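Internal ticket #5521
Category: modeling
Description: The requester needs a full-assembly model to guide mutagenesis choices. All entity lines are attached below as received. Residue total reported by intake: 780.
Assigned to: D.W.
Attached entities:
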Amino acid sequence: MKINRKLFPYVLTLPALLVCVGILIPFFTAVYYSLQRYNLKMPHMKGFIWFDNYVNIFTDPSFWNTIRVSLTYTFFTIIIELLLGLGIALLLAKRTWLNNVLGVLLVLPLMIAPALASLIWRLLINPNFGVVNYVLSFIGLDGFTWASHPDTVLFTLIMVDVWVFTPFIMILLLAGLRSLPRQPFEAAELDGVPEYYKFFRITLPMLFPFILTASLFRLLESIQQFDIIYALSQGGPGESSMVFQVSAYLQTFQYTNIGKAAAMMVVLWAICYFLCHVFVKQWHKLKIKTKGELLQ
Amino acid sequence: MSHSKMKSAIDTFLKGKMSRRDLLIKAGKYGIGFAALTKLMGMQVTSALAAQDFDWKKHSGTTIKLLMNKHPYMDSMIAELDNFKALTGMNVEYDIFAEDVYFDKVTAALSSKSSEYDAFMTGAYMTWTYGPAGWCADLNDFIQDSSKTNPSYNWNDVVGNLRDACSWSGVAGDVPGAAGSKQWCMPWGFELNSVTYNMRYFEKAGMKPPGDLVEMTDQAEYFTNNAGSNEWSYGIGTRGSRSWATIHPGFMSAYANYGLVDFENNGGKLKAAMNSQASKDFHKQWVKMIASSGPANWSGYTWYEVGNDIGAGASAMIFDADILGYFFNGNPENKEAGNFGFHGFTPNPSASAPTPNVWIWSLAMSNFSKKKDAAWYWMQWCNGPENAMAGGVKHNQVNPVRESVWASGDFDDKIRGTSPGYMEQYNSSIDGSKIHFTAQPLFFETTTEWAAALQEMQTGSNVDETLDKLASKIDRMMKDVGLA
């Protein structure tokens, strides 16, 4: 069977188009619901209210708290994971027997489902029988409040996120480090360039695309984090760890308020889109800059 | 020969003319073991039901599917399910989910109008969502229809407060069970919130179970302050997670005992009443107790942690569901199993009796079921007098919803033999027990916000300001749906 040459490119893009439609249908459904008063337990009140759901959430102080907490959580998890991931990747960059073994062992937390990791941590930090509390008691920190106090809950959640996801960054950066061309490093070696200069002027610029890719992945996941937070604090105490996904989950499954939950998810999508856009733009800029620097 | 004699002995037992002890002695004489005896009893009950002037075989060959929560009540139902199958010729399939995800599954199944499940387990509060949304059937249509309900079903044998609690008109502020209410579900088992205490610890401390909330606070403080040199870690266990489930057990039971209400109802318009002066005073007392003598990580406490801690000997007492203490007391894997006493608790010194807020595990029928009549056969069997008695006496169906089971000597013997004070706490509490919340569609939203506010207060927020903020937030929520 011969396919018309003009049609051939369209046939090839058909699977991607179908996937795209599969993604867009739920998206537009969410937008559609977000414009309605749609609470499953009050079917008689269902109807279009246009932007009232958005007005309601933007005028609700709890929503702004949710944005603040979500962004704080995202910012700190990415920064800490990046620094730790990069540090570990640099330590393991040289291919030795020990580094290979450590590389495998350090990936183990990533293989545990985040919800399960949270439950493990919940036991570890339990004040009655937790190992971490027991160890901390030797330095007089046995009364640490972990996820039970607004002052320490975010620290605890970020700590668990870092424990689970740092290996992800580490793997990506390790792969990046090991794939960097050797010539610039050899040339710097011959010229007697100091180590810190090599790191900041050669390694880091060449590694930037990998860093940005890893950050982008983590950004998208962190801002939509649910498992760790719900399992450890359910958004509490009070509202101190309330993030988008937990709030939307409560609106959907406990309060059956589909309209409001959809509006929240559309706002989350807009934030993700904006942040991704900024990231990708920076990525392109850096790519061009890095190429230029290397050519020089 | 011995078989027919045994059958006649079981018959006498089922008619209430022979005690369980005598039946067991007789069974021993005929060389019949306990397992065989319970099987024989099941068969006998089934034969008795089959002999009624009611066509139990009407839906023979029909398969119904249930959506169930993992619970000892469910286990006792499954243990007797073969009898139902033999009685009706029906087949029963079921999906069981852990409680953490169970209600999400129910919401997903019902909101999608799926006809997959014919009947399901639920709590009474949940039907304030499911009922008005048209997701579950009004059971009055079945209970009142003598052609669909067997003559020995005896709906009035179910404890009146529980029947009422499972019905509601759908109008915000209307009292459950008032005229015009629809029976959205039927009670299957329930929980009274009372005090379960470690008798060993209390004896060591020279204390009796608390008489009121102030005494409870003092006792809890004593246990917490003396934790270092003793086995326990803290004084009082209550739930604290950011969930409606934190409000409904001990907290609401105590709140109601002080005569406090969640809403003022002004002709169908509801106004949050958590910030009245009396309520603020009560909250201060409660928060003081939890902050000084509750678990260190209280804000993560669900029923599971509360039960686990008393079971492991970490807490000296809990103010939670009576059956929670019962099950942890009866499980030999728990360090303190067998050491618990039960106490009907009257928090308010001026109140004359306990007023526990009640949680009712109930059975409801999906409105999207295509086999409603067949599902009703299972439901009337499941909480019928015979199965309730079997569940209460042979299995772990505490607390049974039928007065006849509570009045039965065998059930009484069983409970008194294992759980000191349990029957007394039931007798002192049942009359004052009901759902003390105002029935309204935003129940889960308002109680979750309430729990979040409690967490804030427990971690140091000003009680008066937090409650004022909570009340105005709830008023706004009610106004959004035209209820304020």
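Resolution: model delivered.
Comment from assignee: Chain A has twelve helices and two strands.
Ticket closed.
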